[in-house]
Amino acid sequence: NAGVTQTPKFRVLKTGQSMTLLCAQDMNHEYMYWYRQDPGMGLRLIHYSVGEGTTAKGEVPDGYNVSRLKKQNFLLGLESAAPSQTSVYFCASIMRQGKAGELFFGEGSRLTVL
Amino acid sequence: GESVGLHLPTLSVQEGDNSIINCAYSNSASDYFIWYKQESGKGPQFIIDIRSNMDKRQGQRVTVLLNKTVKHLSLQIAATQPGDSAVYFCAENTGGFKTIFGAGTRLFVKA
Asked: For chain B, which has fewer Cβ within 10 Å, the N-terminal or C-terminal residue?
């Protein structure tokens, strides 16, 4: 099984450019999440979704938008990238009826904004 | 590639020794706690979990201890191996939808 797949794995943007990160999971999981990871700060929750067509804000949602049009996909968008958004982004998913915190993570997407 | 967590607390242990990684959590309403392991260039992976109605849980070579009185969580790794070198995160779940992560601890295993 592929599990959780993120694309692209690496991207360099100029300030003001836009881009979308794609997360796909093949485990039929209900919940999906986007985290960012910065040095010394662990993982911070950006947005999450508890089902197809629903999204909600996490700890650090500003500057990001998300969409969950299909159950297996969760997209993270940056409309106007800023250097402060340079980070490693991780997507994760979890079964609705599974353990409440056992997240399955993708391999990460490293974004650099110049 | 470049490592994340360059300024994390670090624990260095000799191969074969036991490791203890500590974590303090802040939300007394959290009822589910998890330890994740993150190897360089990869996403975090689940290690072991514990619910708030327990104070100890054992897995294969790992034990998690929970002290709700002082809001403290620890991960014990027995007979630490080079493959255990990674960043370890504790996380707490406060209501089923969100998992909040701590800053992490980097474990170095010396051969």
From this structure: C
